[in-house]
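As the next step, I selected for study a record pairing a protein sequence with its backbone structure tokens, which the following lines show:
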Amino acid sequence: MTPATAPAAGTTKVYGPISATQERVLSPVGVYVQHYLRRLENGDADDQTDHVKAHADHTAAEAAKAIGNLDLSEEEDEEESEDLLMTDPKEWKQQDHYAVLGLSKLRYRATLDDVIKSHRKKVLRHHPDKKAAQGHLNDDGFFKCIQKAFEILTDHTKRR
């Protein structure tokens, strides 16, 4: 008994013969294979976490190489443009959260520590109470943008 969707006998077409099998040599590559071979050479086959540590080290080294010598020192603070300072907090979905916190150079490579450190600097500089003491009344829009950027960049799911 054939299924209802099966083609009728004699309606199938053969476009060419099936090629002969070929034997090919594949070479293993990657961090895991390298460390597995090293474990075999050293007789450390018992250590199951070595490859995980090696991969973490490799990933950290790649990230450090990508970032280079970027750091958040006091001398390299990004200045806020007038457009950035006048950003409406209600339009938080369109704002560049990294630029608000002064992390434009690092972007997605910014760690949680970088975000917290930059947030503290920005809050100290733009707190509404400090602005009120300087004579600027009702000038807390950028502070709200800073808070929203901090909220988003510290939450792993929202940061994506």
